[in-house]
């Protein structure tokens, strides 16, 4: 579903060029929840921005559902969705207005919108906040609204950039459960970034560990643990980052 081939992206920091991404290679299969794990500044958001076509790689290519993202951005964007844990909307818009905006952004036929709103509101338990302004929503309500928004175009691919960043533990648990539900119910292919080892350990089948723009390990969690003889990913990766 997603093929990332030798992707390199350089930025300048105080006049000096550095690699935010350095020859990144990996693929994600249909229906899997793949975790991109790495410390702050590792390059996770940069890669997500390349996948959505917001940034263009200096080298390498990205294909999603068989299409080159740089060349066929609109075709790809129609069939996927991306949200970040720190997504914000205008504070005066109500939940209903925010969803309405995305319905029209994705050209969802008018006759389908009501039914879709009802089913998303049911799934994410946001029926009671449809007329509330974004400013007055709790963190948990905001997260559920953001997840509902992410399904508005029935995406085949979902990119979630640190979806539980800064959430209270109970809300983070709920959010993880909802993401798993989405994957099970619709078979959505999910790329999730996180710097919480536990989170990816709980949710993902395969992971890639990114550090300073490089993928330093990739594979099934259970294989990585077996190979490294570690009980948790945390033990292993703390060691890798020190090197
Ligand atoms: N537009 C930009 N210009 C310059 N440097 C950037 C830009 N975007 C990100 N960076 C830098 O690139 C590195 C990777 O950032 P990012 O992809 O946001 O990391 P992560 O999401 O893993 O925390 C960081 O050092 C960050 O400061
Ligand atoms: Mg980030």
Give the tags.
single chain, 243 residues, alpha/beta, Rossmann fold, 6-stranded mixed beta sheet, 4-stranded antiparallel beta sheet, 9 helices, 10 strands, 28% strand, globular, binds adenosine-5'-diphosphate, binds magnesium ion
Characterization of the model:
The chain is of the alpha/beta class and 243 residues long. The protein has one domain (2-26, 36-219): 3-Layer(aba) Sandwich (Rossmann fold). The protein is 39% helix and 28% strand. The protein contains nine helices and ten strands. It has helices at 44-51, 73-78, 95-105, 110-123, 139-150, 169-186, 197-203, 221-228, 233-242, and strands at 2-13, 16-28, 33-37, 59-64, 67-68, 80-84, 157-161, 189-194, 206-211, 214-220. The chain has a six-stranded mixed β-sheet with strand order 6-7-8-3-9-10, with helices on both faces. Helix 5 packs parallel to helix 6. The longest helix is centred in the last third of the chain and has 18 residues, at 169-186. The chain is globular, with a radius of gyration of 18 Å. The two termini are 33 Å apart. The model has no long low-confidence stretch (mean pLDDT 93). Magnesium ion binds at residues 44-45, 161-162.
């Amino acid at each position: 579903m997603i093929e990332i081939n030798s992707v390199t992206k350089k930025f300048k920091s105080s006049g000096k060029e550095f690699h935010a991404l350095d020859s990144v290679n990996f693929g994600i299969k249909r229906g899997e929840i793949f975790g991109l794990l790495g410390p702050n500044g590792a390059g996770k958001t940069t890669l997500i921005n390349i996948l959505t076509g917001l940034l263009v790689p200096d080298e390498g290519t990205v294909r999603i559902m068989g299409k080159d993202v740089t060349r066929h951005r609109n075709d790809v964007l129609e069939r996927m969705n991306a949200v970040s844990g720190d997504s914000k909307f205008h504070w005066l818009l109500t939940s209903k207005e925010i969803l309405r905006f995305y319905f029209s952004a994705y050209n969802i036929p008018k006759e389908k919108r009501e039914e879709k709103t009802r089913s998303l509101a049911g799934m994410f338990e946001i029926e009671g906040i449809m007329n509330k302004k974004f400013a007055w929503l709790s963190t948990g309500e905001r997260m559920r609204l953001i997840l509902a928004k992410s399904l508005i175009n029935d995406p085949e691919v979902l990119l979630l950039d640190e979806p539980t960043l800064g959430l209270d533990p109970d809300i983070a648990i709920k959010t993880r459960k909802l993401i798993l539900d989405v994957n099970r119910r619709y078979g959505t292919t999910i790329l999730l970034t996180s710097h919480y080892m536990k989170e990816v350990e709980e949710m993902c089948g395969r992971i890639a560990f990114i550090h300073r723009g490089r993928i330093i390990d990739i594979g099934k969690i259970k294989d990585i643990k077996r190979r490294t003889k570690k009980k948790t990913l945390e033990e292993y990766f703390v060691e890798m980052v020190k090197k």
